[in-house]
Amino acid sequence: MRIHRLLLCALPLAAALNAAGPTMKCDALLTRPFGDDVKIRTATLVPTKPNLPEHCDVRGVIFPEAQFALKLPTTWNDRFQMVGNGGTAGTISLGAVDTALRLGFAASSTDTGHDAAKEPLATFAWETPQNPNARRKLLDFAWLSVHETAVLSKQIIQAYYGAAPKYSYWVGCSTGGRQGLQEAQRFPEDFDGLVIGAPSLVTTYNSMRRLWIGQTQTGDGAIPEAKLPLLTKAIYEKCDALDGLKDGLIDDPRKCTFSPAKDLKRCAGADGADCFTQAQLGALTKIYGGVRNSKGDLLYPGDPVGAEPVWPDNLIAPNKTVLPRAESQLALAYMDPAPGPDWKFTQLNFDTDLPKITRAAAQLNATNTDLTPLKTRGAKIVQYSGWADQQVNPYPGIEYYENVSKRFGDEATRDFYRVFMVPGMYHCSGGPGCGTADWLTATMNWVEKGQAPQVITGAHIEQGKTTRTRPLCPYPQVARYKGIGSPDEATNFSCSDTR
After folding, report:
1. Which of 109, 147, 389, 460 is catalytic?
2. Is 427 labeled as catalytic in the residue annotation?
């Protein structure tokens, strides 16, 4: 398999000159050589628009199929930002690129080497006669295309402005969080600061977890969407006040001892609107209890309580064929050998099939705790997750951080890596929690000014108005109410080591 030359020519992150603007014309990039594996297809100077500054829009492809976009503002802040993808990628994250552009960054994104419209979900990784490059596409999706795009972006920046970026940042959530951890582990020289949101760092097993849940929803155990408010009410009545404040937030779901069998009303006979059948209680027990083999060994942690209102977005599809069909494609593509197009998600065997994803897991999952090169060069990681994440279970991300802390020690780890958990936040954003926060500025202040984030203020915004603020504390600290003042104001809380 051909790995192209960009891997060998990463630019050092030397301090940049104060670049007021470009030193060459935008369209001159079309004829500028960047290696045999790079094709610059367009380089267009885009005039100022109401929502975007004047910039040079560069599009191209890196061998074999990794499409990229790089936008270079005429007035540059001397910094580079690369943004991540969601789901199984296949598209360039242009919205996030434009957000960075408005802040003065030179910003880029990649589609990770495949086209989601032509190869939806993970079908790009399913090797067929019509898709002979599947293994390379899996590698590009896993980590290679992000690194290649980062290196190429810096080369183009150097050519266009006559200076390297003074600082380089990664910003991504979900798949973008996993991509950021891959960068930190595999290519620590690429970025000075990384904003890692809701990382799907063990993505192959998260896919298996979805099929585990899908199997619970195929028969009598299916949970009607109409019963989710009943389930949510029971959970919050038991667990909301455990942190000393009844405020519609579950501070740490690990402290909640909710048991479907004990805490929900069981239907005496036929299924009813105000109760749960024995089969439904069994399904819920499996969802919260985690993926297990026939011996009862835990293979992947159970879902945290608190995300039930958005289960229809991910766990319980109103049309029950939608979620299992989509996720069975994930498993089908990542299993080696692929079981074939007639395979059904209900056939997944949690005793014998998990070893079949070993090859994909070695590439996709970002679990290497040896961050010594990143730490040594002074780069910083700010990671965040919602405690009520319905898409990516937050527990593996916490476990990863704790394992890094075991390797380096708590204090040494906090010197370069901090995690912030957001009570009540769903996947990347949303939910009743205070998940709107300026993660990037906190990371930049740490990298450029040496100001480690002691606390980050989170906000809950409804219809454009801030209705609540809370301090978001570096894990394992938690926000504790001082006992006076409004519980909707961050100033009335402090970060505490009490868990």
Report:
1. 389
2. yes
Distance CA 364, CA 133 (A): 17
* pTM of the entire predicted model: 0.94
User: Which amino acid appears at position 171 of this protein?
Assistant: V
Closest CA to 157 of 54, 58, 68: 58
User: Where is 481: in which H helix or E strand?
Assistant: strand 478-481
The whole-angstrom distance between residue 258's C-alpha and the CA centroid of its chain comes to: 27
Q: Which of 174, 207, 328, 385 is catalytic?
A: 174
User: Residue 50: which of 121, 116, 98 has the closest Cα?
Assistant: 98
CA dihedral defined by 142, 144, 149, 152, rounded to 10 degrees? 170
CATH architecture for residues 5-201+368-459+470-479: 3-Layer(aba) Sandwich (3.40)
State phi, psi for 103 to the nearest 5 degrees: -90, 0
pLDDT above 70 covers what percent of the chain?
92
Domain boundaries, the chain: 5-201+368-459+470-479, 205-362
Q: Are 197 and 177 in contact (CB under 8 A)?
A: yes
Is 200 labeled as catalytic in the residue annotation?
Answer: no
Closest CA to 488 of 496, 479, 475: 479
pLDDT (0 to 100) of residue 10:
38
